[in-house]
């Protein structure tokens, strides 16, 4: 099993290199660090997974190697989406193990459960599977970006496409994550949303990363319901700026 994991990780690194336009053997050595060894490359050559130039400078995946890489990368990035979108945990740690043990049927089931996402939490493309091709049009028509929302509209976040880990953690700290219901208060000159009872200003570049479900009844959180009730009460009393309300109404920014 340990040998298989090392082979898988080598193929995965070669796939990542291909996405970056890299093919130098030295780039693979750098990516793998202490895990790299020449016998690993010899095994991949023997199995027909890679090709190495005569001068030993360039290394690329063969057709069989790309098929294996596609399967591994698809499993890894879908696992990241599952952990981040559904479980809310460290999406990198669990995904590294999942890719080595998941079978195609399980991976397709997870993909379907998540609505056939196009990108992982880092914003990298998720290779499509057989389950995606028949439902791609349906999935696309079910999701909209925050930039497409109308003022006053409420919707639930489906997923967030972002390559910046710091930005992801910042959004998470503000409760802007998959499954959370948001309401658009204004879209000019700055986009402002209500999320978990807080009024939050969102940068335009971040708005394009936040995708929400269309035509789905938004689910109010317990906190939002409490704030709505308190707002109604204070309006009736003519004291919208009462101390009790202001303590609950927080303002943040991304």
UniProtKB/TrEMBL annotation:
<dbReference type="InterPro" id="IPR001367">
    <property type="entry name" value="Fe_dep_repressor"/>
</dbReference>
<dbReference type="Pfam" id="PF04023">
    <property type="entry name" value="FeoA"/>
</dbReference>
<dbReference type="InterPro" id="IPR036388">
    <property type="entry name" value="WH-like_DNA-bd_sf"/>
</dbReference>
<feature type="domain" description="Ferrous iron transporter FeoA-like">
    <location>
        <begin position="144"/>
        <end position="214"/>
    </location>
</feature>
<dbReference type="Pfam" id="PF02742">
    <property type="entry name" value="Fe_dep_repr_C"/>
</dbReference>
<dbReference type="InterPro" id="IPR038157">
    <property type="entry name" value="FeoA_core_dom"/>
</dbReference>
<protein>
    <submittedName>
        <fullName>Magnetosome protein involved in iron transport into magnetosomes Mad30-2</fullName>
    </submittedName>
</protein>
<keyword id="KW-0408">Iron</keyword>
<dbReference type="GO" id="GO:0046914">
    <property type="term" value="F:transition metal ion binding"/>
</dbReference>
<dbReference type="InterPro" id="IPR050536">
    <property type="entry name" value="DtxR_MntR_Metal-Reg"/>
</dbReference>
<dbReference type="InterPro" id="IPR007167">
    <property type="entry name" value="Fe-transptr_FeoA-like"/>
</dbReference>
<dbReference type="GO" id="GO:0005737">
    <property type="term" value="C:cytoplasm"/>
</dbReference>
<dbReference type="InterPro" id="IPR036421">
    <property type="entry name" value="Fe_dep_repressor_sf"/>
</dbReference>
<dbReference type="GO" id="GO:0003700">
    <property type="term" value="F:DNA-binding transcription factor activity"/>
</dbReference>
<comment type="subunit">
    <text>Homodimer.</text>
</comment>
<dbReference type="GO" id="GO:0046983">
    <property type="term" value="F:protein dimerization activity"/>
</dbReference>
<dbReference type="InterPro" id="IPR008988">
    <property type="entry name" value="Transcriptional_repressor_C"/>
</dbReference>
<dbReference type="InterPro" id="IPR022689">
    <property type="entry name" value="Iron_dep_repressor"/>
</dbReference>
